From TrEMBL:
Transmembrane segments: none annotated. InterPro entries: PRX5-like, Redoxin, Thioredoxin-like_sf, Thioredoxin_domain. Belongs to the peroxiredoxin family. Prx5 subfamily. It comes from the Bacteria. This is Glutathione-dependent peroxiredoxin. Its EC number is 1.11.1.27. It comes from Advenella kashmirensis W13003. One of its GO terms (molecular function) is thioredoxin peroxidase activity. The active site is at 56 (cysteine sulfenic acid (-soh) intermediate). Keywords: Antioxidant, Oxidoreductase, Peroxidase, Redox-active center. It catalyses: a hydroperoxide + 2 glutathione = an alcohol + glutathione disulfide + H2O. SUPFAM superfamilies: Thioredoxin-like (SSF52833). GO terms for cellular component: cytoplasm. Residues 3-167 form the Thioredoxin domain.
Length: 167
C-alpha cells in the first residue's frame, strides 16, 4: 500500500554521512530513526531513483539547492533527499553537487523505508535493483501533508515549483 496524504510516515532507519563529528557524534555514516528525525519538524522530502544519475543530479538536486532558502523561508526546518544508495555514496553525491549543509542526503541502502512507504521502483531488469520512485512530500511532524509522485521517468510534479506552491 502506498502512503497517502494524512498518513504518518512509517518507522525506519535512514543513514547520513556526517562530514565532521560534533557534540559527541562521530564522523562517517550515522543511522537515525525516522520518528526522531521528523519529531516536531516541518520537512520537505524529495526522493530519487539514484545518486549520480542524470535527472536526479542535473535537475532534482540542483533545483532544491537553488530554492532551498525560499523553501526554508516558508517555515520548513529541513530539506531531505532520500535515495536507495549507501551513506558513502549519498555523502559523496552531496559533496559533489554542493548539497551538503543545505540538504540532508539520507540513504535508504536496502530500500526498507522506501518499501514501507510503498514507493519502491523495481529496476532489476535494468540492472539497478530496487530503487525509489521519484517523488516529493511535505511532512508535518511525520504526517504527510502533500505528496507528489512521478510516473515513469518523468520530472514534472516533484520539483521545487510544486513544493513552493504547496507550502
Amino acid at each position: 500500500m502506498t502512503i497517502s496524504i494524512g498518513d504518518q510516515v512509517p518507522e525506519g532507519t535512514l543513514t547520513e554521512f556526517i562530514e565532521k563529528g560534533t557534540d559527541g557524534q562521530d564522523a562517517g555514516p550515522q543511522a537515525f530513526k525516522v520518528s526522531e528525525l521528523v519529531k516536531d519538524k516541518k520537512i520537505v522530502l524529495f526522493a530519487v531513483p539514484g545518486a549520480f544519475t542524470p535527472t536526479c543530479t542535473n535537475k532534482h538536486v540542483v533545483d532544491f539547492i537553488r530554492d532551498a532558502e525560499k523553501i526554508k523561508s516558508k517555515g520548513v526546518d529541513e530539506i531531505w533527499c532520500v535515495a536507495v544508495n549507501d551513506a558513502f555514496v549519498m555523502g559523496a553525491w552531496g559533496r559533489d553537487t554542493g548539497a551538503t549543509g543545505t540538504i540532508r542526503m539520507l540513504a535508504d541502502g536496502s530500500a526498507t523505508w522506501t518499501k514501507a512507504m510503498g514507493l519502491e521502483l523495481d529496476m532489476i531488469a535494468r540492472g539497478l535493483g530496487v530503487r525509489s520512485r521519484r517523488y516529493s512530500a511535505i511532512l508535518d511532524n511525520g504526517v504527510v501533508s502533500q505528496l507528489n509522485v512521478e510516473e515513469g521517468g518523468e520530472y514534472k510534479i516533484s520539483g521545487t515549483e510544486t513544493i513552493l506552491s504547496q507550502l
